[in-house]
Specification:
Blueprint: E1 2-7, E2 22-28, E3 35-41, H1 45-48, H2 53-67, E4 72-74, H3 80-88, E5 92-94, H4 101-109
Parallel strand pairs: 1-4, 4-5
Antiparallel strand pairs: 1-2, 2-3
Length: 116
């Protein structure tokens, strides 16, 4: 399972998906929940938010998710428009998650990518 989540410099889950500065892409073993790979990217969506309209912002995020073969997004908050877009992309979503980002990847990455 490939999961993506907004992360802070302290390793916590960031406040919002669409305004993330950094995200982590993790490959998680479905059965054990072990995080096998962990890469962080400075996507700067917080800086790009509101520039060029919502469609461009969503397209930028969709490209990133497709390039990294993301199957599930884990975050604290996500707007309705983004949620609909991810559902159309068949990307699972887990919202209202807080705390340690690696722990969340391990816990929710083993759920099989089902939307929550």
């Amino acid at each position: 399972m490939v999961v993506c989540l907004p992360v802070t410099k302290e390793g916590q889950i960031g406040d919002g998906w669409g305004r993330a500065h950094d995200v982590a892409v993790a490959r998680v073993d479905n059965a054990s929940g072990n995080v096998e790979e962990w890469d962080e990217y400075p996507v700067r969506w917080d800086e790009w938010h509101g520039q060029g309209g919502e469609g461009q912002h969503h397209a930028r995020m969709a490209r990133f998710l497709m390039e990294h073969a993301v199957e599930q997004v884990i975050c604290a908050h996500m707007g309705d428009g983004m949620l609909r877009m991810l559902q159309r992309m068949n990307v699972g979503v887990v919202v209202d998650v807080h705390g340690d980002a690696r722990e969340a990847a391990s816990r929710y990455g083993r759920l099989g990518g089902l939307p929550h």
